[in-house]
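hey so u asked for the seq, here:
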Amino acid sequence: MFHFFASLFTLVGFVVTVGAAMLSFGLAREYVRNRLRFVDGVRHPIAPWVVAILATVILAPAVALIHIVPIIGSLFGFGTALIVGGATGLGTASGVKALKRGE
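ran it, structure tokens below
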């Protein structure tokens, strides 16, 4: 019985991680396209890397604090912060690419 709940929490954690990554990708892409359209610094090739690292560094302590709550803490890990940070960087790169195409 315990094995069922362990796999259920793993599945829920995976779904939450994928949902957070999709949300961060979309928000970063739209933010670059709408708000940072006239900022030249966002077009630099290193900008998505900086955004991904900053997002990961900001999310890592937040994920560590979530582990205080017993049930919710088992859903998130440092991998979630890495994946969401990477999705934010990819969203930034996608927004810059959309700006270059004129979308």
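The helical segments are 2-34, 47-66, 70-73, 78-101. The chain has one domain: 2-101.
lmk if thats what u needed
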